[in-house]
Specification:
The complex is a heterotrimer of chains A (507), B (321) and C (333). The radius of gyration of chain A is 24 Å and the shape is globular. A 6-stranded mixed sheet of chain A has the order 6-7-8-3-9-10, with helices on both faces. In chain A, helix 4 packs across helix 5 and helix 13 crosses helix 14. Chain A has 507 residues and is α/β, with parallel strands linked by helices. Chain A is built from 17 helices and 20 strands. Chain B folds into 2 domains: 250 residues, Orthogonal Bundle (ABC transporter involved in vitamin B12 uptake, BtuC), CATH 1.10.3470; 28 residues. Chain B is 75% helix and 1% strand. A two-stranded antiparallel ribbon of chain B has the order 1-2. Chain B is globular. With 333 residues, chain C is mainly α. Chain C has 14 helices and 2 strands, in the order H-H-H-H-H-H-H-E-E-H-H-H-H-H-H-H. The longest helix of chain C has 27 residues. The chains are: A alpha/beta (507), B mainly alpha (321), C mainly alpha (333). Chains B and C meet through helix 5, helix 12 and helix 14 of B and helix 6, helix 12 and helix 14 of C.
């Protein structure tokens, strides 16, 4: 007799040569919020997909309310009372919201009630899903799941890409699922949220369950220790200094530029305006510094980075690189001026079917003058150098899609390292990446900066500004509203500014 | 709960249905122009000429909307055409009713085979239907190796001339078939599933859409319309021909002109049907204008290229803000 | 460790697991293709003993060359995730222009005009697809119709001046040296080598794969997608022109629809050869073997005196079976 609501034991899943899950297990009690944690590649997503019928396991048993349970499709999972909400909203872009509801047989009134509960006040059911902003879609996806009152709700990074206020509402609503004996499996990289919301946690590492613990004061340290395993020596709590795991190999000559001088900023942005989101952004970026950009969702940072990387054009404003006015019509122009972009979404940056080498060497063959024969040995040397510097694990084989998430992100950075970095634009480079790789990346950014590169870093996790940056600008309503040196850039100060509150406001 | 639509809604609906509206306006314009050119040209002749392509376009539209493509439409039409012709030859008028039903079922079965193979082998749709087009074309030759067979009198009559001297019978048949087979489907769960599959297969899967069954269904529906097209061929010509003209690619042209996105998830059947009529009427107009018939293919292809190039250009402009 | 049956090719065969073999096959898809080709040739020999000899090989290569060149067009274009449904029309155009203009302007001029015309059509395709971002299927379909229509008009205009396949074309693509080596190899081998080398060792070759794999990523890395696509369709036009000349040389005739039956087989050869129709993966070597397989298949069915309907059915079935087998081997999940 078990009082567990959901139990999975001995789950195994192999994709070709890759062992996604080795012996994973999970036990969820009724009426609890249970966190599922682990580094990228640890197997969390695979386990979730198995639980909700998106993928079939090679071995293992799953029982729901004590009865063995074999879900073979998301539809069957729904029928059994298990629903998951993925990072990418499962709404059909070309269908109206109302049709999306009809497609899944979701009752309209409960849905409306949940949407209002989650903080969205105006909702037109006739709007096409493709016309709605991402945070709204995620809320709708969640409301759709809640509307059928599932016994087990699986949330995969539900608060990622949500503005802080919506995040709070979501966590509040999720917390109340406990009433009525319903449970939630909560996946998140934001340990602070996990600590605030969850009752217990299961930690996965390398496809195995390495620990199950109750969440109490200070559990974060234990969690991080379990997630990182034996490599966790010398690890302090998040926010403190840490030993770098990345080899401090000699940097390629191109980035060994003399120490930053105060004369001409590497990048000058004046009065940038674009569409309705970007109103008037002005700031300087100097060589040798890491400048953080902090802001809530949709304050113009997407447009800013798109313009700086050449992917889009501003309506007004001026851009100067090393004092020279520039106008970018295509990413190739920006790259030629030394501005390179690391986008948030790895899927936008990588050629998944191609090899690591082709991915890293891609910018080198992009210009028309390089369309001819490739100097293979020189390329090989540069690529190997970048792989070694970033310690990219290329064991998974010839196709980049077989690498883990963290390694894939390293490849997106490596392609610019291989050619020498002058100005790096990082847009949320560590979104959805495990703690260990995050640290490596931030340490790398610091290294590049001290080698003379100028780095502009946007991150959605405010607590990391102090970790990686020299100073920070806060963007709100399409404008830069505050500029803060790193020492003073604590979360409270950043959050206030990010919400548009002026300095010196109460509390 | 009905409310008055506000401007945003109206604009959204116009944007979505705009292309279909446009093509019907073009059709109307051409009809008027044709009438000016040659007032003796009956709409019924036009309707008969356009009927097979209209059905082919309808079938292709369904498949493309759900994210696939069917390069065997022409071959399926040939197969059903000759089967109908062989079965109806020398058979009585009453038997012909059964034949029509059987042939439609045959179309559904053939289409279902296409879909099932695509699902089982996981080979891309374009390749599966490319390969099956040879198989079905060969099967058509097996049934009838040269033009022949026959068609029952009433079958031929039902697509000829005007109903009540007003509307071409061919158009009535087209409207009936589409009305019965597609309209109730479109807003049903299956119809939404078709659009979902074409719009975003992963989201559709996660939304609980039975992806494989839906895919097979889309090809079966296409097979149904292809069979209707084959029957139309037999009805309008009175015989069956095992090697039909280039209906497959012309159907693709018609659906693009009719506002269906080759990427899937967008468009409908009404637009492609109008486009089929437009193509037929252009062909007729060229003849009336005394243009050398040899130019006709070139002009039709040229129109298609121009339309998609202009559309592409406008889309680019829109994306550049 | 499990062994796979019949693995006599490698000395370590007893140590290779099934998974390793699958990976091998996926990374070197040409091997099973060549085995299939060999099997077909063997079958041919069994059905009509003595047929497989030097002359047969020579003739087969001669007849496979135009298809192999058309398969090159499709390979390059399909690597970018596109398709070129106008290759047959462009090929017919080139063959017919060469035949109809050479009597008046001489062979070199006639050939130049032929290739120029085909390349020009490719350029229009490239403008539509590369610059205006029209879907390749529909753009090339439309241009194919335009060219086919143009040829019917053009034929009427030039019928008076007569049409004859230029002598040099007939010799190069239709003739043999020492009675055994097909002359077309002297054109095809350098061409194929250039294409194979270009795909592997040229920056442009890498870009074809990049554009086919992920256009967004390529663009953000500085690749000018429009330029890459424009160029590939121009190349496709030029190669189609060469294929058309080859075809008219092989068949010693030039009609306006000469290459039409080769359109779908050109796609089939590339698919059989293992290039993904979605782009980003594949290569030309497989397409060459694919073209050979299809040519031998036709030869086999001719020898068997199979009626047209059986030929069609077998043709389609083989394409499907090979594509399915290939999909099976390359998919992991």
């Amino acid at each position: 007799m078990t009082d567990l609501l959901l139990e999975a034991t001995g789950v195994v899943k192999t994709y070709g040569a890759v062992n996604a899950l080795r012996e994973a297990s999970l036990a969820v009690r009724p009426g609890e919020i249970h966190a599922l944690l682990g580094a990228n590649g640890a197997g969390k997503s695979t386990l979730v997909k198995i639980l909700t019928g998106a993928v079939r396991p090679d071995a293992g048993t799953i029982t729901l309310r004590g009865q063995p349970c074999q879900v073979r499709s998301p539809a069957e999972a729904r029928a059994s009372g298990m629903v998951s909400v993925y990072q990418e909203p499962a709404l059909i872009p070309d269908l109206a919201v109302r049709d999306n509801l009809r497609l899944t047989g979701t009752p309209i009134e409960p849905f409306r009630a949940w949407v209002a509960e989650l903080g969205i006040t105006t909702l037109d059911l006739r709007a096409l899903a493709r016309d709605l902003p991402l945070p709204t879609l995620r809320i709708l996806d969640l409301a759709r799941a809640l509307a059928i009152a599932p016994d087990v709700l699986l949330l995969d990074e539900i608060t990622a890409a949500l503005p802080a206020d919506l995040s709070e509402r979501v966590m509040d609503v999720v917390g109340r699922q406990r009433e009525g004996g319903r449970s939630v499996i909560f996946i998140s990289h934001r340990l602070i949220e996990v600590a605030a919301l969850c009752d217990r946690a299961t930690v996965l590492r390398d496809g195995q369950t390495v620990g199950v613990l109750d969440i109490t004061e200070g559990s974060e340290n234990e969690i991080v220790r379990l997630m990182l395993g034996p490599a966790a020596n010398g690890l302090a709590a998040p926010g403190g200094p840490r030993e770098p795991a990345v080899a401090s190999a000699a940097l390629p000559a191109a980035t060994a530029v003399p120490a930053p001088d105060a004369s001409t900023p590497r990048l000058e942005v004046r009065g940038l305006r674009a569409g309705r989101k970007l109103q008037d952004v002005t700031f300087d970026l100097r060589a040798g510094e890491v400048l953080g950009v902090a802001g809530l969702e949709g304050q113009g940072q997407d447009e800013l980075f798109a313009i700086l990387s050449g992917d889009d054009r501003p309506d007004e404003g001026e851009l100067r690189v090393d004092g020279v006015p520039m106008r970018f019509r295509h990413p190739a122009d920006a790259i030629a001026a030394g501005l390179v972009l690391i986008p948030a979404d790895r899927m936008q940056a990588l050629l998944l079917q191609r090899s690591v080498r082709e991915n890293i060497a891609l910018p080198a063959v992009a210009p028309v003058r390089r369309w001819g024969p490739i100097a293979m040995r020189g390329e090989g040397r540069r690529v190997q150098g970048a792989i070694q510097q970033l310690q990219i694990d290329t064991r998974a084989g010839a196709e980049v899609r077989r690498l883990s998430g963290g390694n894939q992100q390293k490849v997106t950075i490596a392609r610019w390292i291989a050619g020498g970095v002058r100005t790096l634009l990082c847009f949320d480079p560590t979104r959805g990446i495990d703690v260990g790789t995050k640290r490596e990346i931030y340490h790398l950014l610091r290294e590049l900066a001290s080698g003379g590169a100028a780095i502009l870093l946007y991150t959605s996790e405010l607590e990391e500004i102090q970790l990686a940056c020299d100073r920070a600008v806060v963007i709100y309503g399409g404008r830069v509203v505050d500029e803060i040196p790193a020492a003073e850039a604590n979360e409270a100060r950043l959050l206030r500014a990010a919400h548009g509150l002026r300095r010196g406001a109460i509390a | 709960m009905m409310r008055r639509p506000d401007t945003a809604e109206v604009l959204g609906a116009v944007r979505r249905g705009g292309w279909t509206l446009g093509i019907y306006l073009v059709l109307l314009g051409l009809v008027i122009y044709t009438w000016i050119l040659n007032s003796r040209y009956g709409l019924d002749t036009l309707a008969m000429a356009a009927l097979p392509l209209a059905f082919a376009a309808a079938g292709q539209a369904v498949v493309v909307i759900s994210g696939g493509i069917d390069l065997s439409v022409g071959a399926m039409m040939a197969l059903t055409s000759v089967t109908a012709a062989v079965l109806m030859k020398n058979a009585g008028e009453e038997v012909a009713v059964v034949v029509v039903a059987l042939v439609l079922l045959l179309g559904i079965a053939v289409g279902a085979v296409n879909g099932t193979l695509a699902v089982i082998t996981r080979v891309p749709d374009i390749v599966v239907t490319l390969a099956m087009s040879y198989v079905w074309a060969g099967t058509a030759l097996l049934v009838l190796d040269r033009p022949g067979g026959g068609a029952a009198e009433w079958v031929q009559d039902v697509v000829k001339g005007d109903l009540l001297d007003l509307v071409p019978r061919a158009t009535v048949i087209l409207a009936l078939v589409v009305g019965i087979a597609w309209v109730p489907l479109r807003r049903s769960r299956l119809g939404l599933s078709l659009y979902a599959l074409g719009s975003h297969p992963l989201a559709a899967f996660r939304s609980g859409v039975p992806v494989q069954r839906t895919k097979v269904a889309s090809y079966a529906i296409c097979g149904f319309f292809a069979a209707a097209g084959g029957l139309a061929l037999t009805a309008t010509t009175g015989i069956g021909t095992p090697t039909t003209g280039d209906y497959t690619l012309k159907a693709v042209a018609a659906i693009v002109l009719g506002g269906v996105s080759l990427a899937g998830g967008r468009g409908g059947i009404l637009g492609p049907i109008a486009a089929a009529y437009v193509l037929a009427i252009i062909r007729a107009d060229l003849v009336f204008m005394g243009v050398d018939p040899n130019y006709s293919t070139m002009i039709q292809g040229g129109i298609m290229v121009l339309v998609v190039m202009v559309a592409g250009y406008l889309e680019l402009r829109r994306r550049r803000r | 460790m499990s062994t796979t049956p019949g693995s006599t090719m490698s000395t370590r065969s007893s140590l290779l697991s099934a998974a390793a073999w699958r990976r091998r096959l996926r990374d070197e898809p040409v091997i099973p293709l060549v085995m299939l080709l060999a099997a077909l040739i063997l079958l041919l020999q069994v059905v009509q003993p003595g047929i497989v000899k030097a002359e047969w090989v020579s003739t087969t290569i001669k007849f496979a060359t135009p298809l192999a060149i058309l398969a090159a067009c499709q390979t390059l274009v399909m690597l970018t995730g596109g398709i070129d449904l106008s290759v047959a029309s462009m090929a017919s155009l080139a063959g017919y222009v060469a035949a109809s203009q050479s009597p008046s302007f001489g062979d070199p001029a006639g050939i130049a005009m032929a290739l120029g015309a085909a390349t020009f059509v490719g350029l229009i395709n490239g403008v539509g697809i590369g610059l205006l971002r029209v879907q390749p299927l529909i753009m090339t379909l439309g241009m194919g119709l335009v060219v086919a229509g143009f040829l019917t008009v053009y034929q009427v205009l030039v019928v008076s001046s007569g049409a004859a396949v230029p002598e040099v074309i007939g010799v190069v693509f239709g003739g043999t040296t020492f009675g055994v080596i097909p002359n077309s190899l002297f054109v095809f081998l350098p061409l194929a080598t250039l294409i194979l080398y270009g795909l592997r060792r040229f920056g442009y070759g890498r870009l074809l794969y990049a554009v086919g794999d992920n256009q967004t990523a390529a663009r953000l890395a500085g690749v000018r997608i429009g330029a890459v696509l424009l160029v590939v369709y121009v190349i496709s036009g030029l190669l189609a022109g060469i294929a058309g000349l080859a075809l008219s040389g092989v068949s010693r005739a030039a009609t306006i629809a000469l290459a039409d039956p080769y359109l779908l087989p050109s796609v089939a050869a590339v698919v059989i050869g293992g290039t993904s129709i979605f782009g980003g993966r594949g290569g030309y070597l497989g397409s060459i073997v694919g073209a050979l397989i299809l040519t031998v298949l036709v030869s086999l069915m001719t020898v068997l005196q199979a009626p047209q309907e059986v030929r069609q059915i077998v043709y389609g079935t083989i394409i499907l079976v090979v594509a399915a087998a290939y999909t099976r081997v390359t998919s992991e999940s």
